[in-house]
Amino acid sequence: MTASPAPHNRPEDIHRIVETVDRYNPQNIPILEAYVEQQLTSADYAATTPSTSSTTATTTSTTYDRDACLAVLKLYQFNPAFSSNKVVCSILQLALGALPDADFGLCLYMLNEDVLKDAGVAALVALHDLLQQARFKAFWAAVEDTPEDVLVNRALFADRIRIYIAGTLAIAYRVISIPTLQSALNLKDAAALDAFLKEHAWTRDPEDKDAVVLPATKENQARPVVVQENIKFEHLTKIIGYGRMAQ
Amino acid sequence: MYQEHYDEDEVRAEEVELPTVYAGDNYVEDDLEFNDGNAAEFVHPEVQIPDVVRNFIQHFHRNVSERNVWDLHAIYENGWNKLTEKFYPKASWPEPEAVAQLVNDDAVFLILYKELYYRHIYSKLTPSIDDRIASYSNYCDLFNYILNSSTEPSDLELPNQWLWDIIDEFIYQFQSFCIYRSKVKTKNEIEIELLKERPDVWNVHNVLNVLYSLIQKSRINEQLLVSKNGGDMQEAAGEFGSRPLYRLLGYFSIIGLLRVHCLLGDYVLALKTMENVELNKKGLFARVTACHVTTYYYVGFAYMMMRRYSDAIKAFAHILLFVSRTKQYHTRSYQFEAISKKSEQMYALMAMCVAISPQRIDENVHSIMREKYGDHSIRLQKGEEGISTFEELFNFACPKFISPVPPDYEIAVNASHEPTRHQQKVFMSEVRTQLLVPTIRSFLKLYTTLEADKLAAFLDIPVEEVRTELLVFKHKTRQRRYENGSVLEGEFGPTTDLDFYLKKDLIYIAESKQGRRVGDWFIRHINKFEDIVSNMERR
Predict the structure, then answer these.
(1) Residue A234: how many other CB atoms lie within 10 Å
(2) pLDDT(B412) > 70
(3) What pLDDT digit, counting tens, does each position of B207-227 carry?
(4) To which H or E segment does residue B389 belong?
(5) What is the C-alpha to C-alpha distance for residues B125 and B136, in angstroms, rounded to an integer?
(6) pLDDT of B79 above 60
(7) How far is A60 from chain B (nearest CA, A)?
(8) Mean pLDDT of chain B
């Protein structure tokens, strides 16, 4: 599968803009901006399509369209007069949901220092830093403090981020203590936690009532491997050639 | 494998110093025309054109008109550079107006001459604003001639190396102009007026337009798809794309776009441009060494900025190995300096990537890296202390980023470093989050199981912190890695040889080891042995 590809349901007109030189045409800014907002407010925002790979943390939102978001930032970069910090915030919020992919950083590279000074943008950068440093408890506290207009559609956003956090925990833990889990996911309510566990097929440890067992994956069972060398057939063609010459 | 570099011993630039060879009819006629001409027009330069240079230009002109690519190779790579060294190390070549007299006002030749004329000014002198504008106009003329002058493709043929240099220089001058115009403080009023009057000059849209048009006209993407998936190449290439001039310019424009997008901080689009180029196979990019090196530098750099350190290391290691193996070929090339500079930068970038994401790399490349950046590498792993070393290496090794829009000319500041500072800042904040990774790794290496609180005591931080740092370790060492398909694709996987998992607060650690590698050794020695045997048989 490709790295955060466009969603399958990307509208055709958007596709035509993003994939051609039309992406440089400032007249398309309003169309793309509307498309960004639509990604964020769509009810499918937190929905995910399970990835084709076996890893648990690779789940992409069904509506998030990285390349279209970056196309907007590119238009802003070339036409600063049209730049809207509000849309930048929306894009950054979407990029947060794309973790563990590095999309957020990739968006920042396309902005400039002036945009970063915007209070909303700065708040989102701070949220990103906390997630990057796995300071989940502090992250949830910061979300509380973020103004409504910076983080929209908050409940869905929380669900989306929870998926990322769960993925990160799942690559590190086989067994995790419930207080740690609750603070990481910000699910203080026991019923909500149980619903979450059920959804992810995580189970309470039968031997330890304070712990949850995570399903074993490739990532959370570290086995020592001896990497053997691989010799490709092509590397031997010359040697095989000698044999033919000798005949 | 190192093709297209003619043997220098075979074609000597001195050839052009033998005027008798070229004193054909044309030559004499030109000469006569000259003397008959209006004296007022010739008060200046021609008088100063040394005979050798005059003959060279006429020889050059003839070979361009006759589409003699082989000789153009020698003229371009040798003759021009030798004469530059001898006559114009600190002055510009004869003015194009003066040269026009020598070549019957051949418009196409003059465009090509001006390409070299201004390129020489950029490399040896300081271009004035007039030079910058004139050079831009000349590139417009050149690309207009190639793209729009007729419904038929041009039959012009130029050496590959030159075609690459045209695209390379075009972007370089664009980059240079962006940096130049952002230094508002050091401009006088006339310069500022001129900059305001001509917003079209080196405008980012115009530059991109040229590159996209060359790609489109040459149908290079269609051609690459056919060479990848099979199909009718003739049909895919079309009338224009089947000519080397168009095919190569189109191809080099892809690499050019890769570079421009990187300079603007758009790493996704940079790699997306390379979608149809198969890096793991020897592509057209390998025909010109400078292009080969540029391709890998920017692909590697984009990977690094995308947090795909493992892919970045692979890209750098690949090209650095190539450069170190073919060193003897390019020490004599006029591109040698540029290639060594880029290599130095790539060793620095690789040292950073390896520090962030420790892994095995090719031994040859590794030992050179240790030689050059051994001290740096040690400092890079020292947590907070390493920050300044990261900054130093990044500044040295990154491309000079640009702002695509003109600055506010009313505010007298020099903002040319702003774009680079911004890229560095974002990159460093990424680096900062993983400062403890190497330290944790060094502790975990010593154990197979370890209590989190014990690790906390080693690191002198609270247990709570250890838990988060362990998660950071896991999160950061898990990166997308290229497996197949286009360069942008990749699957998540662990990149370190040291992995662990947690059962509550107990860390279970496992280290992967490399098996002994003997295959390569045997292959090398079998080959050597066969060589010896066949040598003996011949005697």
Answers:
(1) 7
(2) yes
(3) 888 889 888 888 888 787 777
(4) helix B387-397
(5) 17
(6) yes
(7) 13
(8) 78
Domain boundaries, chain B: 127-432, 437-511
Give all strands (DSSP E) within B226-360, no chain letters.
none
Which domains, ranges and CATH numbers included, belong to chain A?
A: 1-152 (1.25.40.250), 173-247 (no CATH)
**What is the arrangement of strands in the sheet containing A203-204, beginning at the earlier edge strand?**
A203-204, A211-213, A173-177, B498-503, B506-511, B449-451
Answer positive or negative: Cα dihedral of B257, B258, B260, B266.
positive
Q: Is the pLDDT of residue B3 over 60?
A: no
CA dihedral B289, B291, B294, B300 (to 10 degrees): -90
User: Is a pLDDT exceeding 50 seen at residue B286?
Assistant: yes
pLDDT value at position B262? 92
Q: What averages of pLDDT result for each successive group of 10 residues across chain A (247 residues)?
A: 53 81 85 84 58 39 79 88 86 85 88 85 89 86 82 81 84 80 80 79 76 76 71 76 66
Q: What is the DSSP string of B115-178?
A: HHHHHHHHHHS---HHHHHHHHHHHHHHHHHHHHS-SSPP-----HHHHHHHHHHHHHHHHHHH
Choose among A106, A94, A112: nearest CA to A44.
A94
Residues 6+ apart with CB under 8 A from A145: none
CA distance B290 to B278: 18
What mean pLDDT is predicted for residues B233-244? Answer: 76
- Under 8 Å between Cβ of B50 and B102: no
Residue the block writes with tokens 């509307």: A34
Q: What is the pLDDT of residues B486-499, one digit of tens each?
A: 777 777 776 777 77
Tokens read off for B243: 């000519």
Mutate to test the interface with A, among B204, B422, B437, B538 (most CBs of A within 10 A): B422
Chain A hits for B514, Cβ within 8 Å: 226-227
> Which of B272, B419, B478 is opposite residue A171, by nearest beta carbon?
B478
Give the DSSP letter of residue B500.
Answer: E
Q: Which of A91, A121, A133, A235 to mutate to test the interface with B (most CBs of B within 10 A)?
A: A133
Inter-chain residue contact A227 with B491, CB threshold 8 Å: no
Element (H, E) at B449: strand B449-451
Q: Which residues contact B259 (CB under 8 A, 6 or more apart)?
A: B171, B270, B294, B298, B399
ipTM tops 0.85: no
Report the 10 Å Cβ neighbour count for A195.
12
Phi and psi angles of residue B255, each rounded to the nearest 5 degrees, phi first = -65, -35
Q: Nearest chain A Cα to B468, which residue?
A: A134
Q: Where are the beta strands (DSSP E) in B278-382?
A: none
Q: Does position B142 have pLDDT exceeding 50, yes or no?
A: yes
The Cα diameter of chain B in Å comes to: 96
Determine the residue of chain B that is closest to A24 in CA distance.
Answer: B205
- Separation between Cα atoms, residue A137 and residue A122, nearest integer Å: 19
The residues, any chain, with a CB within 8 Å of residue B308's CB and separated by 6 or more, are A102, B479, B480, B481, B482, B490
Residue B137: which residues within 8 A CB-CB, separation 6 or more? none
Q: How far apart are CA B169 and CA B72, in angstroms?
A: 19
B274, B254 Cβ separation under 8 angstroms:
yes
Cα gap B259→B402, rounded to integer Å: 11
pLDDT single digits (tens) B8-17? 333 333 232 2
3-state secondary structure of A211: strand
Q: Å from A207 to nearest chain B CA?
A: 13
Q: Which helix (H) or strand (E) holds A227?
A: strand A226-227
Q: Is B514 helix (H, G, I), strand (E, B) or coil?
A: strand
Tens of pLDDT along B348-358?
999 888 888 87
Question: What are the Cα distances from residue B338, in Å, to A82, B300, B335, B352, B400?
Answer: 39, 17, 5, 22, 15
CA distance A47 to B4: 54
